[in-house]
Write a structure and sequence with these properties.
The chain has helices at 9-69, 79-84, 118-131, 149-155; strands at residues 86-88, 91-93, 112-114, 179-181, 187-192, 195-197, 232-233. By secondary structure, the protein is α+β, with helices and mostly antiparallel strands. The protein has one domain (16-233). Strands 6-5-7 form a 3-stranded antiparallel beta sheet, with helices on one face. It has a two-stranded antiparallel sheet with strand order 1-2. Strands 3-4 form a two-stranded antiparallel sheet. α3 crosses α4 (149-155). The radius of gyration is 27 Å and the shape is elongated.
Length: 236
């Protein structure tokens, strides 16, 4: 004899209510994920930019050591020159870590080499001067002075800084350089010397003086990367 199972309206209602509750929780969870996604993306980008600054500062410091060693008569022509280090007896003294030779902001990881070009460096120098209340810091080493005379004169001519900022040649090897910059043309969440665009961040030993970090607007200053320091504003 076949037994017939009868579903009561109460059981069906309970199952329907449970399904609605689960769907409601999933909806709230999805909304929460959407709400925090921009914050997570911001933090990821912020950390990537901080790492780019740390590495760029290391490259700038390596360039300074290289130029000092050769008494201003020679510039590095590739990242390999810096990675090889400097002669010290029968060995080589390391001046740049391999990780610092990689730009975390560019697609291919290669730094754009900045030659001692008056136009490019004069724009950066003017931004540093504006950030430093109208005073352009000197060089941390007298051997660097030979590369700044023409640049300082260009700064004083009040050249239009924003013109053609996006039009630059990407050279990553076989060029004497006094600094590096990222190939990324994106805007930044961090302000470096008051500059909020990756490609305009020039990491060079020039115009360093005794500069330190600028406090971020808001609750307080941002974190500091390894020395040598450079002014940087981090929105909180």
């Amino acid at each position: 004899m076949m037994r017939t199972t009868t579903r009561t309206p109460t059981t069906g209602n309970q199952r329907g209510a449970t399904l609605l509750a689960v769907m409601g929780m999933m909806t709230l969870f999805a909304i929460a994920l959407l709400a925090i996604a921009p914050s997570v993306q911001y933090e990821v980008q912020r950390e990537k930019e901080l790492e780019a600054i740390r590495r760029g500062e290391e490259v700038a410091n390596a360039i300074r050591q290289y130029v000092d060693f050769y008494r201003g008569q020679r510039l590095p022509e590739s990242m390999e020159d810096l990675l090889e280090g400097l002669p010290q007896g029968t060995k080589k003294r390391q001046i740049l870590r391999p990780s610092a030779a990689v730009d975390p902001l560019s697609e291919d990881g290669k730094w754009r080499l900045i030659k001692p070009d008056p136009e490019t460096l004069a724009r950066f120098a003017k931004r540093v001067q504006d950030y430093n209340n109208g005073v352009l810091p000197g060089n941390p080493s007298s051997t660097l002075n030979r590369y700044t005379i023409i640049i300082v004169n260009s700064v004083n001519t009040e050249t239009e800084l924003e013109a053609d900022d996006d039009e630059f040649e990407v050279v990553t090897d076989n060029q004497p350089f006094i600094g590096v910059a990222s190939q990324s043309r994106s805007g930044s969440v961090i302000s470096y010397y008051g500059i909020d665009k990756h490609s305009n961040w020039v990491f060079t030993p020039l115009f360093r003086g005794n500069s330190g970090f600028g406090d971020a607007p808001g609750p307080g200053p941002g974190p500091r990367p390894p020395r040598p320091p450079a002014p940087i504003n981090i929105p909180q």
